[in-house]
Amino acid sequence: MVTQKQSVFFFIGDDKYLKEEALKNLIPVLPGKIQHPPDQMTFYGGELNTEEVLSQLNTMPLLSDRRLVVIKDIEKTSDEFRAILINYIKKPSKSAYLVLDAKDDSVLKEYDDAIGQISIRRFSLLSGEPLTSWIMSYVERSGKTMDRDAIAIFKELEGNDLYYLSRELDKLITFAGDAPEISPDDVEGLIGKSLIKSAFEITDAI
After folding, report:
1. Which residues contact 104 (CB under 8 A, 6 or more apart)?
2. Is the dihedral of CA 149, 157, 125, 101 positive or negative?
């Protein structure tokens, strides 16, 4: 459960999929009445209106007892807005929760004055074993497993964009039918032998 003291969050990193999943998981644990989800508003750093953002943060929500404000591309906000936001973070509203979305840690130095009030969460692009674990977990939610050799082929061909991988895994899960495990043959059958051969030939050449 998130406490009222944890009302401002920095989501930092390149993986948009993990950030969106974290946001979805944050909403149910915000303090308040469970039957009424928080009002939610999203702004973008390069095009936001300061007065509108402050109004959303400081005005009691109408249909809930909580409000969630998300500001994406926070590094694109003006110096003036940043100064106003830092003052808000030091004394946040009791009914609002704020998520600031940034690509990397470089933005944190601009919020040094209020860093003690911010909960920082990082979402880097997955690779290696963490990516393998994510693929396994995603497939297991469908009631299936995935052979490690199949995962190796899949990773080599599809990269590490989790939005894209999730769509391709959904296709694989459907393609595998009633089989309890996704095999290398399933990956080959869906993607094609020629593409697999080409991908590994390129890898061997490098």
Report:
1. 12, 13, 14
2. negative
Alpha-carbon span 153 to 149, nearest angstrom: 6
CA distance 204 to 179: 32
Q: Which of 5, 4, 40 is nearest to 23 (CA)?
A: 40
**In angstroms, rounded to a whole number, what is the distance separating the alpha carbons of residues 16 and 20?**
6
Q: Tell me: the pLDDT tens digits for 125-172?
A: 999 999 999 999 999 999 999 999 999 989 988 889 999 999 999 999
CA-wise closest residue to 67 among 45, 36, 44: 36
Query: How far is 119 from 178, CA to CA, in rounded Å?
Result: 43
Digit-coded pLDDT (tens) for 19-62: 999 999 998 888 766 556 778 999 999 899 999 999 999 988 87
Q: How many CB atoms lie within 10 A of CB 96?
A: 22
Q: What distances in angstroms separate CA 101 from CA 11, 77, 93, 203, one per listed residue?
A: 5, 11, 19, 35
| Partners of residue 44 on adjacent β-strands | 72
- Tokens 């095009």, located at residue: 47
CB atoms within 10 A of CB 171: 11
